[in-house]
Amino acid sequence: MSSALLQRLADESDIRDVVYRYAHGIDRRRWDELRSCFGTSLVADFTRAGRKEVFDGTADDWVAGLRRLVEGMDGTHHVIANVRMRVDGDRAEASSSFHALHRLLNDTGGSDYTVTGFYDYVLERHESAWRVVRYAATMNIRQGNPHIFKLAAIKEQT
After folding, report:
1. Which distant-in-sequence residues (6+ apart) come within 8 Å of 55 by Cβ?
2. In sequence order, what are the beta bridge partners of 58?
3. How many angstroms separate the CA atoms of 29 and 61, rounded?
4. Domain count, the chain
5. What is the domain-level CATH number for residue 102?
6. What SS3 class is residue 131?
7. Residue 125: domain span
8. pLDDT, tens only, 105-157
9. Is the Cβ–Cβ distance between 7 and 89 less than 8 Å?
């Protein structure tokens, strides 16, 4: 096997690990693990997934926001599949599909909100490790009670 092929396989494995670590960090509430997926700064475009604005700031701030949202939930479960990528030196583009279940038991409606869709990532190699510097989420199926996110934010504040 050539060294170029071995490097490509190693890069692809490392990038898949970042993508899976993202979901694992959220669902296990391992915030350092989640933070390790990102570079110092981050652009996160979730406007096709319900957010009003594109986030452009520090990865620490993004993870803190996700933490506030997720910790108010009773549970989450993210499944990442169909990871595809193209590596070009120290930069890569990747995509995956996702299926995410969010649960918050409540008295005002359904307890679950499930979404499916796609993530598109831009990653850069920093100090021998791949990090997401930009990503976007596009939802294509939504089912259940989206208001549990507001309820989770209120729950987390109390």
Report:
1. 42, 43, 44, 45, 46, 61, 62, 65
2. 41
3. 16
4. 1
5. 3.10.450.50
6. strand
7. 3-157
8. 999 889 999 999 999 999 999 988 999 999 999 999 999 999 998 898 887 67
9. no
Q: By the 8 A CB rule, do 97 and 131 touch?
A: no
Alpha helices in the chain (DSSP H): 3-28, 31-35, 59-71, 148-157
Amino acid letter, 15: I
Task: Please tell me the distance from the alpha carbon of residue 54 to that of residue 157, in angstroms, as a whole number.
Answer: 24
**Token couple for 10:** 């190693």
Q: DSSP letter at 89?
A: T
Biggest CA–CA distance in the chain, Å, is 60
pTM across the whole model: 0.92
Answer for the pair 117, 88: CB distance below 8 angstroms, yes or no.
no
